[in-house]
UniProtKB/TrEMBL annotation:
<keyword id="KW-0472">Membrane</keyword>
<keyword id="KW-0812">Transmembrane</keyword>
<dbReference type="Pfam" id="PF14158">
    <property type="entry name" value="YndJ"/>
</dbReference>
<feature type="transmembrane region" description="Helical">
    <location>
        <begin position="92"/>
        <end position="116"/>
    </location>
</feature>
<keyword id="KW-1133">Transmembrane helix</keyword>
<feature type="transmembrane region" description="Helical">
    <location>
        <begin position="32"/>
        <end position="48"/>
    </location>
</feature>
<dbReference type="InterPro" id="IPR025450">
    <property type="entry name" value="YndJ-like"/>
</dbReference>
<feature type="transmembrane region" description="Helical">
    <location>
        <begin position="60"/>
        <end position="80"/>
    </location>
</feature>
<protein>
    <recommendedName>
        <fullName>DUF2178 domain-containing protein</fullName>
    </recommendedName>
</protein>
<feature type="transmembrane region" description="Helical">
    <location>
        <begin position="5"/>
        <end position="26"/>
    </location>
</feature>
Length: 130
C-alpha cells in the first residue's frame, strides 16, 4: 500500500528545491504559494479523510486525492512560464493554471456535498464552508 504522506514528502522536496536554488526566479510570496500547493494542501487533504463518508463524498474525495499533485505541478509550470522561462504569451500560463482552477472547484464541491449531507451538525458545516 502506498504511504499516505508520499505526495507531501515529494512536495516538500520540490518546495525545498524552489526555496534554495536561484534558478527559479520566484519572489518570496510565490515560493510560499508553491509550499502551500505542495505541502500544506496535501496535509489538509489527509485531514479531511473521514471513515464515515457517504458514497458521493468518497467519490469526490478520491478524485481530489488523484488530481492534487498533477494540478500542483501544472501550477508550478504556470509560474515558471511567466517567471523562469519568460515566455511572453500569457495564454500558456493561463492554460496551465486551468488545472488548479478545476481542482479548486472540486474542493468547493466536496465542501458543498459535506454541507448538504450533514445539515444538522454545525461543526461539519463549518468544516465544509472552509
Amino acid at each position: 500500500m502506498k504511504h499516505p504522506f508520499f505526495p507531501t514528502i515529494i512536495g516538500g522536496i520540490i518546495s525545498f528545491i524552489i526555496f534554495t536554488f536561484d534558478y527559479f526566479q520566484f519572489s518570496l510570496i510565490e515560493k510560499f504559494l508553491m509550499f502551500a500547493f505542495f505541502v500544506i494542501l496535501s496535509l489538509v487533504i489527509l485531514l479531511i479523510d473521514d471513515k464515515d463518508q457517504t458514497k458521493s463524498q468518497k467519490k469526490v474525495y478520491s478524485i481530489i486525492r488523484v488530481l492534487h499533485f498533477p494540478a500542483a505541478l501544472l501550477s508550478l509550470a504556470s509560474l515558471m512560464t511567466s517567471k523562469t522561462w519568460e515566455v511572453g504569451n500569457s495564454a500558456i500560463s493561463g492554460a496551465l493554471s486551468l488545472a488548479w482552477l478545476l481542482f479548486t472547484f472540486l474542493l468547493a464541491l466536496y465542501g458543498l456535498v459535506l454541507i448538504l449531507e450533514k445539515k444538522r451538525k454545525i461543526e461539519e458545516i463549518a468544516i465544509g464552508a472552509g
